Amino acid sequence: MAERGRAFQKGQSGNPKGKPKGARHKTTLAMEALLAGEAEGLTRKAIEMANDGDTVALRLCLDRLLPPRKDRPIRFALPPIETTADLTRATSALLAAVAAGEITPSEAAELGKLVDAHVKAIEVTDIQSRLEALEAVKR
């Protein structure tokens, strides 16, 4: 039985499926209704203000026209990594690409994380193989 004053059991969600996809907040819907039909005029005004030197309007326009790039494909020749010994060749290639300006340091850091995860997977596979070999010898 539920505790007095509680509508739901402790630890159970009142809405286990959560908010449906595409559901929008009432405030968002109200703002969209207020701006309906005004977007073109407001955009034109923001551009005019930016052209007149309003730096806030300029930033707003640029942020909407050219949002910050989150990610991009990188064309980069990374040596194959088949054993943990190949790790030094891969990291050397990353360092050389940064030094040559082919990729940014943050891109190299992200690629380094991928290389690290791959090497860990190789290590786990190697440990599994060794364990299976030891168990086979004991039988």
From TrEMBL:
UniProt-annotated stretches for the region Disordered: 1-25
Every DUF5681 domain range: 7-67
Pfam family, one: DUF5681
InterPro entries: DUF5681 (IPR043736)
Protein's name according to its UniProt entry: DUF5681 domain-containing protein
Organism lineage: Bacteria, Pseudomonadati, Pseudomonadota, Alphaproteobacteria, Hyphomicrobiales
